[in-house]
Design the sequence.
């Protein structure tokens, strides 16, 4: 039950005074008729209250969200399962947003008409406390600061269960042209996932420029510019935590909004979200110039080459009127379809298809020659230049030095062509392909041996349809319009990518100071230079934007890994770096421990019983991996694996709470011994969760203070920390060692006899 945060089933015979009026017929039933009582908490499944008690559980949850303007109507269908032989009555308690209003509540039970009420947070807290006092499990207190919908449900039929339908409505929070929606759910990382389906429809007063979820993967379908449907996809359904999504209404051209989160050290972190609504079918578009560069070396022989050829034919067929193209094919020698790019016509398309059909693979791999020949081509004026570069091997002919190839790709790229690289199989120089792409505002893609080359290439090409803003750059000004680059630091990505149709633009970084500022984005639209100015007020947004620093840290780690990986191309440079490498390794380690972000090189930190206090040993272990794997492994399966994992970090736009990454078998794996709650990260060490801020303490060192997790003292401490955003630690399922005002305080799940004792005026004051 760790996936679901919303249902607590409690027998009315146990809750007694908590019975909700829902018709005399239901209350007249005896306890024997209703069955034995049990409590179902969100994170731990059924908790037996008395011997022989039944266990009612949640089988599935379906959520439908209908949003008109800023009013959201949320419908939940909760499927309850009763595996016992007796009919059960349960009490349903559902955390809901503040000021939510119940519009509907129904189930297929007999007896009087069902009813429900919403308890404000203060009354809900008292109810939660009473239940926790009976079941001795504080997990429920994760939701003590929410308003709570409460009702009784009867009957939950033996062997069949019950479906409960709840409808509530609330007004959404807006920040300028951005509107936010949050569906409360548990922070827990437990293995007993409950299937969720979540669908939302948004009908806005103006066209929607961008949709964004910082928490879960969601797919979107636009019926109209201001009418969008969203659905929690398969990957998103496997992630715990509240579901949050936002939409940004169309502004004057490019729309933008700023998510801010304060830093205890001053300043904070920011996420700048920009977007343009999808272009209308008849809107003018930037035309493209597409150069296809295809590896036809002997190693491509067979199915790989046939798929690559099919992808090329498909791309040629999709070139639009007014666009230009050319084809390069290379092995030990280099050939091309035309001396210069040609404009699309029925004749040039037919000739290009015939040219592709007659290609045969043989010889070596002259990557340098093929790439520089393509980049030296004259550029068709007024078009957006794109290179699709495909290879399945290492450079074996001509200039093979990785550093030289990368350098010449910069000096020869006078027309600023975007080089989208495709590595087919594992025998490729992954760092080289990554750098060729990154230094030209493009991306790299890897096709695994069992994957379809045609499908992967076509997938990337479809995304490159309709560039909307090209060569963007960011400038920061103060409120008076004076350049203020010192106000931001460690901006990611370092070079902004082009904005294609339907793509949002995310920029993350650290913020210095608290004065208002202006973000200025300059780029080209339809061949003309355009500047957009966005003034923002800098203010604390508390725990609502706690996702921002973690997303920034993920991208920052990727940049640091790239710095090390690229330096490995030249052994002489690598030997000279010394102290610089040590500083980079130390920063990667610090970010991983502070934010709970694991990489291939810090995954050992999640091992049960690992001693995080051994910073020197951990750094040595990590640095050894960085040197021997990251920097020295340039090709092969290991290099491709590292490239794919780093790419995930580099482009991370939503929380990865379970630290999902590819393992040595290229299978996705997760780490449940690292938890992220609010602004803090926790590591599971010797049966307890340890705040990353206390990671350097010896594991056997006694805490400065011990309090009961379900006590008033714990409540006071948590309410004063991080804007009160640490309620999720109740769901972690074990004792928690937390940093509170410089002290190491152990929050124990088992109630302490003195924790709820009457206040003693001579006792030490509560933790603050």
Sequence:
């Amino acid at each position: 039950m760790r996936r679901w945060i919303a249902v607590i089933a409690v027998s009315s015979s146990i809750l007694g005074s908590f019975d909700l009026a829902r018709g005399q017929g239901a209350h007249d039933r005896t306890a024997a008729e209703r069955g034995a009582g049990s409590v179902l908490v969100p994170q731990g499944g059924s908790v037996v209250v008395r011997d022989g008690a039944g266990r009612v559980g949640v089988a599935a949850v379906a959520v439908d969200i209908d949003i008109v303007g800023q009013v959201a109507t949320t419908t939940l269908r909760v499927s309850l399962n009763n595996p016992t032989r007796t009919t059960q009555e349960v009490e349903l308690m559902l955390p809901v947003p503040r000021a939510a209003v119940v519009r509907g509540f129904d189930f297929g039970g007999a007896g009087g008409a069902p009813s429900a009420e919403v308890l404000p947070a203060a009354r809900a807290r008292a109810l939660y406390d009473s239940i926790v006092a009976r079941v001795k499990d504080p997990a429920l207190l994760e939701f003590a600061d929410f308003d709570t919908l409460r009702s009784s449900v009867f009957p939950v039929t033996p062997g069949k269960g019950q479906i409960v339908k709840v409808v509530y409505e609330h007004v959404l929070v807006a920040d300028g042209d951005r509107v936010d929606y949050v569906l409360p759910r548990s922070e827990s990382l437990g293995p007993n996932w409950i299937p969720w389906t979540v669908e939302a429809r948004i009908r806005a007063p103006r066209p929607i420029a961008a949709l964004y979820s910082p928490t879960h993967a969601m797919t979107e379908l636009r019926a109209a510019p201001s009418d969008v449907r969203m659905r929690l996809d398969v990957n998103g359904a496997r992630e715990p935590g509240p579901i949050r999504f936002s939409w940004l209404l169309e502004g004057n051209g490019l729309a933008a909004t700023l998510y801010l989160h304060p830093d205890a050290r001053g300043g904070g972190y920011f996420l700048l979200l920009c977007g343009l609504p999808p272009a209308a079918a008849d809107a003018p578009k930037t035309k493209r110039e597409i150069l296809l560069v295809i590896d036809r070396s002997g190693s491509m022989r067979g199915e790989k080459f046939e798929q690559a050829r099919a992808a090329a034919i498909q791309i040629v067929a999709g070139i639009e009127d007014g666009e230009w193209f050319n084809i390069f094919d290379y092995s030990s020698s280099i050939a091309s379809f035309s001396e210069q790019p040609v404009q699309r016509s029925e004749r040039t398309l037919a000739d290009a298809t015939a040219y592709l059909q007659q290609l045969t693979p043989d010889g070596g791999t002259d990557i340098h020659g093929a790439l520089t020949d393509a980049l030296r081509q004259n550029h068709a004026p007024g078009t957006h230049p794109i290179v699709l570069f495909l290879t399945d091997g290492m450079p074996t002919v001509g200039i093979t030095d990785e550093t030289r190839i990368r350098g010449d790709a910069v000096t020869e790229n006078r027309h600023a062509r975007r080089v989208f690289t495709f590595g087919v199989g594992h025998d490729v120089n992954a760092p080289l392909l990554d750098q060729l792409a990154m230094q030209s505002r493009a991306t790299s893609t890897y096709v695994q041996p069992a994957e379809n080359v045609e499908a992967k290439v076509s997938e990337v090409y479809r995304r490159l349809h309709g560039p909307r803003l090209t060569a963007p750059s960011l400038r920061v000004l103060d409120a008076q319009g004076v350049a203020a680059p010192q106000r931001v630091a460690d901006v990611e990505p370092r070079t902004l990518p082009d904005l294609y149709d339907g793509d949002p633009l995310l920029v993350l970084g650290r913020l210095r100071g608290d004065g208002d500022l202006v973000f200025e984005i300059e780029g080209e639209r339809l061949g003309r230079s355009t500047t957009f100015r966005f003034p923002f007020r800098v203010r604390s947004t508390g725990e609502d934007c706690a996702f921002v620093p973690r997303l920034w840290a993920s991208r920052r780690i990727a940049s640091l890994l790239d710095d090390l990986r690229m330096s490995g191309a030249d052994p002489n440079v690598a030997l000279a770096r010394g102290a610089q490498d040590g500083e980079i390794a130390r920063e990667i380690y610090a970010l991983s421990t502070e934010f709970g972000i694991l990489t291939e090189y810090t995954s050992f930190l999640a091992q049960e019983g690992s001693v995080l206090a051994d910073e020197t040993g951990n750094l040595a272990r990590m640095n050894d991996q960085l040197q021997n794997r990251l920097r020295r492994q340039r090709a092969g399966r290991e290099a491709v694996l590292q490239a794919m994992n780093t790419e995930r970090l580099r482009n991370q736009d939503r929380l990865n709470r379970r630290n999902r990454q590819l393992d040595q078998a290229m299978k996705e794996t997760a780490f449940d011994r690292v938890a992220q709650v609010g602004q803090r990260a926790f590591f599971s060490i010797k049966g307890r969760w340890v705040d990353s801020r206390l990671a350097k303490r010896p594991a056997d060192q006694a805490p400065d203070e011990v309090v009961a997790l379900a006590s008033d003292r714990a409540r006071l401490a948590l309410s004063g920390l991080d804007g009160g955003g640490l309620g999720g630690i109740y769901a972690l399922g074990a004792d928690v060692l937390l940093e509170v005002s410089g002290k190491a305080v152990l929050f124990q799940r088992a109630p302490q006899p003195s924790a709820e004792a009457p206040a003693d005026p001579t006792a030490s004051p509560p933790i603050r």
